[in-house]
Amino acid sequence: xxxxxxxxxxxxxxxxxxxxxxxxxxxxxxxxxxxxxxxxxxxxxxxxxxxxxxxxxxxxxxxxxxxxxxxxxxxxxxxxxxxxxxxxxxxxxxxxxxxxxxxxxxxxxxxxxxxxxxxxxxxxxxxxxxxxxxxxxxxxxxxxxxxxxxxxxxxxxxxxxxxxxxxxxxxxxxxxxxxxxxxxxx
Length: 186
Ligand SMILES: Cc1cc2nc3c(=O)[nH]c(=O)nc-3n(C[C@H](O)[C@H](O)[C@H](O)COP(=O)(O)O)c2cc1C
Description:
Elements: H1 2-22, E1 28-32, H2 38-50, E2 53-56, H3 66-77, E3 96-102, H4 110-118, E4 125-132, H5 137-147, E5 158-162, H6 168-184
Parallel strand pairs: 1-2, 1-3, 3-4, 4-5
Bound molecules: flavin mononucleotide.
């Protein structure tokens, strides 16, 4: 009798295991631009928390040096669409996409703009993050939200950081709150 019960249980268990192994798990992608490393730090911490893949946006335009700094500000103000290197990963393969970068004069960077306008993100669960020195990141994240195709007036969870908040303990708390907000967002 015991053998029969064991056999029946095994017959039920095997299809269940096969089924669960073939269901694709919800995939998360963190896409970011970072000129001086702050958003890279945040993106890596997010990738760790969300068990996500990472895609760094590379702007082909020179963005280092004093002159380039001023040009970067002008490009952000005039809403330039950056010339970025091809992506290594395909956003279409992901259910959730977290997009981030620095605020430049209260705007998103040309690289992030290029990603947002060139990718159809409708139907994706989106989260936005970014950093600034003192002021402007909230405006930049609002601008990003407005560019997301198919978003309408939808609000996305955001993680807006000032550089002083990038210390381990504060950052962990803020990322935890962002993580919870993402669980409840559509
Ligand atoms: C062109 C340019 C414009 C910027 N404008 C602002 C700004 O308006 N307000 C602010 O607080 N920080 C501003 N910053 C600072 C960056 O937003 C901040 O250092 C950010 O954390 C950098 O992120 P990253 O290291 O990932 O590039 C600006 C930086 C650059 C290069």
